[in-house]
Amino acid sequence: MWMTGVLAAYEGDEEKARLTIKKIEEAKMGPIALNYIAYVYHALGDLDSYFEYMNRVVETHGTIPFTLMHSPLLAKARTDSRYPELMEKVRKHLGLTK
C-alpha cells in the first residue's frame, strides 16, 4: 500500500499520496505503519513529517534499519542534518554502540 503513495508522490499526485497515508492509518497495522507513512512523506518532499514519523518509529521499536540506511527511496533524508541524530536513536534502541 505504501508504495502506491510513494509512486503517486513521485508522479506529482499529492492528493493520492495523502489518501494513501490515510488508508495506512486506517489499516491499523501497528508501529510498522509509521514507517510506511514516513516513506510517503519522504516521497512528497515533506522531510519535517518524515523525521517526525521516523522518530515515532524509533520510540515504538518498529524501525526497519536496513531500509532507513540503504534504500535509494530515502536518499534525500540521509543528506538532511537531522539524519545523524535519528540514526543515533536507532543505534541506542538496537543496543549498538557504533
Fold and architecture overview:
This protein has about 100 residues and is mostly helical. The protein has one domain. It has 7 helices and no strands. Helix 3 runs antiparallel to helix 4 (about 45-60). It is globular.
SSE topology:
Elements: H1 2-10, H2 14-27, H3 32-44, H4 47-59, H5 65-70, H6 75-78, H7 83-94
Helix pairs in contact: 1-2, 1-3, 2-3, 3-4, 4-7
Entry keywords:
7 helices; 0% strand; 72% helix; 98 residues; globular; mainly alpha
The share of residues in helices is: over 70%
- Count of extended strands: 0
> What can be said about the biggest beta sheet?
none
Which structural class fits the helix and strand makeup?
A: mainly alpha
The helix count comes to 7
On the 0 to 100 scale, the average pLDDT is 91
Low-confidence stretches: none
Tally of distinct domains: 1
**Could you give the distance between the termini?**
33 Å
Following the backbone from N to C, one meets helices and strands in this order, namely HHHHHHH
Q: What would the principal axes of the Cα set say about the shape?
A: globular
- State which percent range the strand residues make up: under 5%
**What is the radius of gyration computed over CA atoms, rounded to a whole number of angstroms?**
13 Å
